[in-house]
Every structure is written in structure tokens, then in C-alpha cells.
Design a protein that fits this description.
The protein is α+β, with helices and mostly antiparallel strands. It is built from 28 helices and 22 strands.
């Protein structure tokens, strides 16, 4: 749906008389610029040559030799999204003081465009508008144009998304705004077709720009008044009230009830299409089931994980998940693949495996991690951000969404050979397909069903499916691949480190821990050039101040890595990140943490986010980090910070909807977390006890392990839980404690498993009422 919203689109009869115009700054040679500087253009062109990707520059404007005709300042950036626009005829600036200083000098409005590299409609608007010379000429003459990668600058994105929601009522990307030189907005929209009548809109982008430029010139009082009013409303919406009493368990139950009512019992998940994975919601329901034994909570988690794993939202060949499904059945995806989705879903399937014992959930988690290690890995250890939804049609210059992932029956037959009949039936490939006559692979029939219909043993069908899967994957690898956004983001890598560390612990796979270590070493070694964490790293350069979520997600990943490896280095680094949050991000008056540091750039408003989006809330993960640190170290300072933050978000906790990770943090605070210690003899390990721990779903815990001797004594200074613990009678020994009061130590894995399984009930005065047994009519969330 296309929406255009403006605070002022005003026309006037004639411009007023004006004083002498300031002399404009020089620009690279582009249509409509007042002072072209060929030397600047040459410098930018040289920079662009070293940054052009394998598919060449993204532009239709070429010289006779095939080189790009235009180049702008984005050629100096490292963001893949900004580089996609480096050869537009628009005189783009990256976000920063230089652009707004120029707008003030030349008294021009600022056109702000926000998107990301794998955004389909961002690509469409680029091709229709930002590659259009007439539109570029108008932008270069009458605006200062600024382009923002929302993944590098989520702080900028979040502030102006509030503007878009305020004016248009709904959000989305690309985001298109017009600002005064003081960064205050007076127009906000999303994707806008280029010209009047395109795609059925009355007013296209070109006409809107003309009216906005005229309004800015001729109706300045109204425009600036409207911009100030909008900016004040954004600041008001971002205000932070004082602390309130931390809610009790009713808030946790209320959130679970809301999810149960939104549950789609037929297909799993929540609401109708488009349907997004909701790992934060599943994590909360998994916790709720552990403390209430409510069967519906478990049913929602298990059914949703199973339906997603069988759907087209999962890449049935490569193992990764796509961004979302356009339908309620998880069948047809939007084909981009995001690091943050896959990292969170790997953890969700690991949780599902621990809750249910289902080996297929463990396999899905393993295949997600293998996908990330294979297709999303930087050679120096980090994880890339995303892959595009679009890819080239073989033998052409045309891009289509999902072309890389979809199949025709003829293509399956050619690739799978004798296994093709089974593959066609299992993966649901037919002549009509779901996307432009091509099929999205999904589990259309079970192995058991195919075995019955073909009078074969299930093992024969399963072997045929696996052979076909390998053949199809090999054939697909020969296709033009989707573009990949190869920036490394600290926070998203923190989520991936968590996933690999959890995979190492739950699946007993040391290679996953080694992969997590490589990522942690890259982020901590390359993305702190002066000691302060940066958000982004690409082409050997760290950039952008790290935000709340970068610190919180990375600290979570390091705490998980500490659990997986028991290397004290990772705990020490997590403590350092928590200290940086306390020093630079804390709201000292009301509690909780701002998204931006105290010494960071001043935006329209300083946000303190509580709700989950595609990623969990930075504040919620920070609170969980602090509670875990308190349990591990015994330092009451961390618990006090967590409780202050929970009290700051009391209204959000009471509301529950959209703040599931925050509610999970409340669950940790209201629970009595398990203190789990495993001590091995100096000459051996504890494989049987570790196997019992791997199978146990115990989210609210602190876990430490060590060998007897100097290692144990040294570790105990950092983790007091280890003090006084010994391997009894020369055998590996487990200790399960609550508030430093321990069950009998045991070397018996079955006894250890029973101790781990005991959960403190959510309500002390009796069991909670059952969750609604089936969802109410699906509602969008």
C-alpha cells in the first residue's frame, strides 16, 4: 500500500524577493548541480572503482566504454546500501553535519531517504526515481539529498520512523522524508512512484518534490511551524516517565494470554499473512510452559516451529530462513535472508529441541548454523548482514525476486535425475508453481506418506530425498546468486555468537564454539579502534558509534560463549560491555538505557526502546545480561541496574504486547534462577553430566564448570559459584543451587536431570489458569 503524508504541501502564486543567493558548494558533475568540480568527480570515480561489487555498478547510465556515467559522494562510503546509490545522478550525501550545514548555507530543504541493501521496494524506487535524470536534476537544484542505511544507523531510522507513523499511520521502507536544515520533518512517506498516475497514485514523486520545494520557498512560516510541531510530538512520544513498581507474575501471564489469543491454530504463528517468525514470542511461551506446565504454551511453540520448518519460508536446500511469508501458511516467502532472523531462529529451534526432544528441531538448528557458516561468513571471522530477495535471471540482466530459490519441474528433473519423482512430490514442485510459474520448495508430503503411496520403505524415501536435496543444491549453486550485504554489524554478530555458542552447548558440537570464537575475536579486535565499540565493519574499516543493542546483544553472545567454553575471557569482556552501558547509556533519572550514548550525536529525540521488532529490545536483552551477571558474579550492582530498568518499563510490562523479551526479563527477575556448577576431576571431563545439561531447558540460570586444581581456584575469583565445589570421590560432580542453597551434589546424570527439571511455579498460591485452547480469529500483530 502506497501512502504519502505531509504536514505541509502548500502552493503559492509567486516567490518573494530574496537577498543575494549564497554561492553553492561544488559537486561532482551531475545533472542540475550549480558548480560541477571535475576533480571531485574523478576522485569519487577512483574510489568507486575499488568498491564495485561482482555484478558491476548498479546504474543504467553508462559511458560508451561501459563505465558508469555518474558518481556521487556515496562512493566514499563502505555501506553496501549507500554504494548501491553511488552512481545515481543524484548528488547524495551520507548522513552527517556536512549535508545539513550545506542546507543551512544554501537555504534548502533536505530530502532524506532511508532504506537497506536487501529492500525490494528500495530497489524499485531507486530504479524509478533516483536513476531518473529529471527527478535527479530537481533534487540537485532545490534540495540537499541525504541517504541513510537503516542497518548502520537504526537510531536515525527509529526517530524518523516515529515521524512516518505519526503522519502516515504506518511504516515501511524506503522511508522518504523532507526536513528543514535543523533536521525537523515536514513531509514523510514510504515508497512513492515516480510520476502522477504511476501504479495508480494521484501524485507521484516528481510532483510531490516540486510542491515541497515551492512550499519551502514560498510558505516558510507555515512549513517551519509544522516541522517544529511534528518534532515536538516526536520528542513527546519519546519522553521517559519516572519509575514505577515492578509488576508481578500477572504481567507474564497476561502476555502469554495475548499470544495464545493471536495464535493461528491451523498454521502456527500469530495472526494472518504476511506472517513473520516471532522468536521472541516463542521464547516467552517456552519460559511460560516451563513454570506453569501449560500444554497450550508448548503446543503453540511446537506447532509453530514445525510448520515454519516445513514451509517455503525455510530454504529447504540451504537451511536458512527467509525474512517472512506473504501468506498464512508459511508457503511463499519474501526471499531476503537476514542474519538476525537466522541467529534468533537457531536459538528457537534449540529451545524447541530441549523442550520436546524432537530430533528434527535439532537438525533444523544445525542446518541454520551451517548455512550461516557457509554462506554468511566473512573470511576474517565475522558474519555478513543479509542476502537480497532479487537475483539475476540466468543469461539476462533482469532481476526477479526469488529466482535463485524457485524451481520448475523440468529443472528438478534435470538436476535430480532418478530421484526426481520423489523430489517433485516431497518438495511440492508443480507446473503452476507459486511465483511466476515457478515453485517454492516446501515439505508437501511426509516421508511416511510417500512411502505408503509408493509402496517403499520410509528409509528408501528418506535416502532419495537427501540425495535429491544434495543434487538440487549443487545445481542451484551454479545460478547467479542474490547480492549479499557484506557489512559486519556488532549487534547482529552478537546474536550469531549466541546462536553458535548455544548450538555448541546443546548439540555438543565444538566446531560451533570455534566459529563463535572467531566472530567474537573479530568484533572485539577490529571494531574497537580506540577502545569504544563501533557498530559496523567493512573493507577493513570500523564505523558508526555502537548503540545500546550492539552492547547488549554482544554481551549476551559473550555470556553464552562463556557457558559454552568456560573461558573467563568472555565473561570479563561481557562485564566490560555492561560497564560501558552503565556509564554511557543509562538513564540515571528514570532507569533503563537510551539507544544512543551520552556522548553521541544529538537527534530529534533520545529513544529508550522497550518493544521487540525484528530484533529483540536492546533494553530487554541488557536487563537479561545484567541479571545473568549478578547470578554469575554475585555483584549486587548488576541486579540493582536491572531492577531500575524493569521499574522504568513497568507500563510496557503491564501492556505486554510487543515487549515479549522484556517480559522474559521480568520472568528471570521473579524466578529463583538455578546456579549450576559442574566440577570435573583434574584428569578428566564430565561428558555424562554435560549431556544431561544439554537436554534441559533452563533459561533462568547461571552455569559454570571447571576442573579441580589451579583452574578451579582461579575461576572462583571471578565466579564465586565455584567456591568450595569439588569433584567428589574422584568423579565429575554437579551442584544445583538456588540462592546459594544447594541440592545434594550428584555424579548421577539422571539425578542431575531431575534437579534441573524442577522449576519454581510462576504463581506461589496455585497453578495458573490454562491458556486459551485455540486462537481467536487471526489478527495481525
Amino acid at each position: 500500500m502506497i501512502r504519502i503524508a505531509a504536514a505541509a504541501l502548500l502552493l503559492a502564486a509567486a516567490p518573494p524577493s530574496r537577498a543575494e543567493e549564497p554561492r553553492p558548494d561544488p559537486d561532482p558533475p551531475l545533472p542540475g548541480v550549480a558548480r560541477a568540480d571535475p576533480r571531485l568527480g574523478a576522485r569519487l570515480a577512483e574510489a568507486a572503482r575499488s568498491r564495485i561489487g561482482p555484478d558491476g555498478p548498479r546504474t543504467r547510465h553508462r559511458n560508451a566504454d561501459g563505465s558508469p556515467k555518474y558518481v556521487n559522494r556515496l562512493a566514499l562510503e563502505t555501506s553496501p546500501y549507500l554504494l548501491q546509490h553511488a552512481h545515481n545522478p543524484v548528488s547524495w550525501y551520507p548522513w552527517g553535519d556536512e549535508a545539513f550545514a550545506r542546507a543551512r548555507r544554501e537555504d534548502k530543504p533536505v530530502l532524506l531517504s532511508i532504506g537497506y541493501s536487501t529492500c525490494h521496494w528500495c530497489h524499485v524506487m531507486e530504479e524509478e526515481s533516483f536513476e531518473d535524470v529529471e527527478i535527479a536534476t530537481l533534487l540537485n537544484e532545490r534540495f540537499v539529498a541525504v541517504k541513510v542505511d537503516r542497518e548502520e544507523r537504526p537510531d536515525v531510522d527509529a526517530v524518523y520512523m516515529k515521524v512516518l507513523l505519526l503522519l502516515a499511520g504506518e511504516g515501511g521502507w524506503p522511508m522518504t522524508l523532507v526536513l528543514t536544515p535543523e533536521r525537523e520533518p515536514f513531509f514523510a512517506g514510504t515508497y512513492i512512484p515516480a510520476r502522477d498516475g504511476d501504479r495508480g497514485v494521484k501524485m507521484g514523486f516528481l510532483s510531490a518534490l516540486r510542491q515541497l520545494a515551492t512550499a519551502y520557498r514560498d510558505d516558510r512560516k507555515e512549513v517551519f511551524s509544522a516541522a517544529r510541531e511534528i518534532a515536538d510530538k516526536v520528542r513527546e512520544a519519546s519522553a521517559h516517565p519516572g519509575p514505577e513498581a515492578i509488576p508481578g507474575p500477572d504481567a507474564i501471564r497476561g502476555a502469554a494470554v495475548r499470544l495464545a489469543r493471536a495464535y493461528d491454530a491451523a498454521n502456527g504463528g500469530f495472526g494472518d499473512g504476511p506472517k513473520f517468525p516471532s522468536p521472541s514470542s516463542l521464547a516467552l511461551l517456552a519460559r511460560y510452559h516451563r513454570r506453569t506446565r501449560d500444554p497450550q504454551a508448548l503446543r503453540i511453540v511446537e506447532t509453530t516451529l514445525a510448520r515454519m520448518a516445513a514451509g517455503g519460508i525455510r530454504d529447504q536446500l540451504g537451511g536458512g530462513f527467509h525474512r517472512y511469508a506473504v501468506d498464512a501458511r508459511w508457503l511463499v516467502p519474501h526471499f531476503e535472508q537476514m542474519l538476525y532472523d537466522n541467529a534468533q531462529l537457531a536459538v528457537a529451534y534449540l529451545d524447541g529441541f530441549q523442550l520436546t526432544g524432537r530430533a528434527d528441531f535439532a537438525r533444523v538448528a544445525r542446518e541454520i548454523l551451517e548455512f550461516l557458516a557457509r554462506d554468511m561468513s566473512d573470511r576474517q571471522g565475522g558474519f555478513f548482514s543479509a542476502t537480497d530477495a532479487d537475483s539475476l535471471v540466468p543469461g539476462t540482466a533482469r532481476r526477479e525476486e526469488g529466482r535463485f530459490f524457485t524451481w520448475t519441474p523440468a529443472e528438478v528433473k534435470a538436476a535430480a535425475g532418478e530421484d526426481a519423482p520423489v523430489a517433485l512430490a516431497f518438495f511440492g514442485v508443480g507446473p503452476k508453481g507459486q511465483v511466476g510459474g515457478r515453485s517454492v520448495l516446501h515439505v508437501a508430503a511426509t516421508v511416511e506418506d510417500l512411502a505408503r503411496s509408493r509402496r517403499a520403505a520410509p528409509s528408501e524415501i528418506e535416502a532419495a530425498v537427501e540425495r535429491a536435496r544434495r543434487k538440487l543444491l549443487a545445481a542451484r549453486d551454479a545460478r547467479p546468486r542474490p547480492a549479499r550485504d557484506e557489512k559486519v554489524l556488532a549487534g547482529w554478530n552478537g546474536l550469531a555468537i549466541s546462536a553458535f555458542a548455544r548450538g555448541a552447548l546443546v548439540l555438543g558440537e565444538p566446531a560451533f564454539a570455534a566459529r563463535a570464537i572467531r566472530a567474537a575475536e573479530l568484533v572485539l579486535g577490529r571494531m574497537r579502534p580506540d577502545g569504544a565499540l563501533r557498530r559496523a565493519w567493512k573493507d577493513g574499516r570500523a564505523s558508526q558509534a555502537a548503540l545500546l543493542e550492539d552492547h547488549a546483544f554482544l554481551a549476551q553472545g559473550l555470556l553464552d560463549l562463556h557457558e559454552a567454553t568456560q573461558d573467563p575471557r568472555w565473561l570479563s569482556e561481557a562485564i566490560a560491555l555492561a560497564s560501558a552501558l552503565e556509564k554511557r547509556f543509562r538513564d540515571e533519572r528514570a532507569g533503563g538505557f537510551f539507544r544512543t550514548p551520552s556522548d553521541g550525536e544529538a537527534l530529534l529525540a533520545r529513544e529508550k526502546p522497550a518493544d521487540d521488532g525484528a530484533e529483540p529490545s536492546g533494553n530487554a536483552v541488557a536487563i537479561l545480561d545484567l541479571l545473568r551477571l549478578h547470578e554469575l558474579t554475585g555483584d549486587d550492582r548488576w541486579r540493582a541496574l536491572a531492577e531500575q530498568a524493569l521499574s522504568a518499563f513497568a507500563p510496557e510490562l503491564a501492556r505486554g504486547a510487543g515487549a515479549e523479551t522484556l517480559v522474559a526479563a521480568l520472568d528471570f527477575r521473579l524466578d529463583t534462577p538455578l546456579e549450576i556448577v559442574v566440577v570435573s576431576p583434574a584428569s578428566g571431563g564430565a561428558p555424562a553430566l554435560e549431556a544431561a545439561l544439554r537436554r534441559a531447558f533452563v533459561p533462568n540460570r547461571a552455569y559454570a564448570a571447571a576442573r579441580e586444581g589451579p583452574e578451579l581456584d582461579a575461576r572462583a575469583r571471578l565466579v564465586p559459584l565455584l567456591e568450595g565445589k569439588r569433584a567428589l570421590r574422584g568423579a565429575a560432580t554437579a551442584y544445583v543451587c538456588r540462592r546459594r542453597t544447594c541440592d545434594l551434589p550428584t555424579s548421577d546424570p539422571a539425578v542431575f536431570a531431575a534437579q534441573l527439571a524442577r522449576a519454581e511455579p510462576l504463581f506461589a498460591n496455585g497453578p495458573a489458569a490454562p491458556l486459551p485452547a485455540s486462537g481467536s480469529p487471526p489478527a495481525a500483530r
